[in-house]
Amino acid sequence: MKILIILAIAAVILAAASALEIYREVHSFSVTRYNVTSPRLKKLRRETKILFLSDLHNRIYGRHNERLLQAVRKENPDLILIGGDMLVGRLDEPFDTAVEFVRQLPDICPVYYANGNHEERMKEYAGKYGSAFADYRKALEECGVRFLENDIDYLNLNGQKTAVCGLEFPIYTYKKIRKSYMEKKDVADYLSAFHTSDDKTARDPGSIPDQYTILLAHNPAYMDAYLDWGADLILSGHLHGGLVRIPGLGGVVTPQGFFFPKYSGEMTREGEQTVIVSRGLGSHTLNIRLFNVPELISIRLMPVVENCCNDM
């Protein structure tokens, strides 16, 4: 009997501690910093900082998101990339919070935005959401945000020719519980159909010498296809870190209801390519995070250091 009482007390303490930790994590964020190297960064003149934001879901950190904005400014980035789901695609969730935050970012540096499933839902279901997505996009474009909707843009990043690509998939590919994944060939077709700002079909990244290619792809479920396409840096989100993270195993469950995804909230090197999946900055509906603090990702691209040897 005594043992049962002790076990019951221990269970209550554990449950209370877990609830407190979940509350703390849901209402906080950290800055995760990664150094990224690539043999394709030969023209990069200096260390270059990219901030990656994903899955804010209208979360507010301090009045008018000032805590988050201060963290962004403190990193002093050269480029900001947004991986989608900054809002919540529901009729009872206005997008004002996301607009108020994101519209301030172009004052810091150039900003590129690729849609997630919440933006895609509003975009595809115009009969339900009306002009909500068009209004959202217009409000941000007027402030200087560049949307990439199966588009590619080229820029000179501190001497390095860089391609930034934004991939979006139909909303049906995000259906929960049942598998609704596209075949690898279908994903490849989307990637090969990227269009440039002058509406020309873009070339695959591997065919362009000295170009560094960054792919914004909200859903990491198709990572094998992204890697085969040849992107040098792949940035994804969507999984919210797997809700609960287990040391050594990673995230536990995806929004689609599948367990222990290969990529869930970390940086992974795949040969000379780099995969970064964000744990996201917010949550919605199921507001649970355990050992899974929301994150703002700061990436330092490192110049290639040529080895110089003198004959003796």
From TrEMBL:
Gene3D superfamilies assigned = 3.60.21.10
Q: Name one GO biological process term.
A: lipid A biosynthetic process
Q: Where is the Calcineurin-like phosphoesterase domain?
A: 49-241
Recorded superkingdom: Bacteria
Q: Can you quote a single GO CC term?
A: membrane
Database matches in InterPro entries: Calcineurin-like_PHP (IPR004843), Metallo-depent_PP-like (IPR029052), Metallophosphoesterase_sf (IPR051158)
The molecular function terms in GO held by this entry are:
metal ion binding; UDP-2,3-diacylglucosamine hydrolase activity
Name under which the protein is recorded: Metallophosphoesterase
**Organism of provenance:** Candidatus Mediterraneibacter gallistercoris
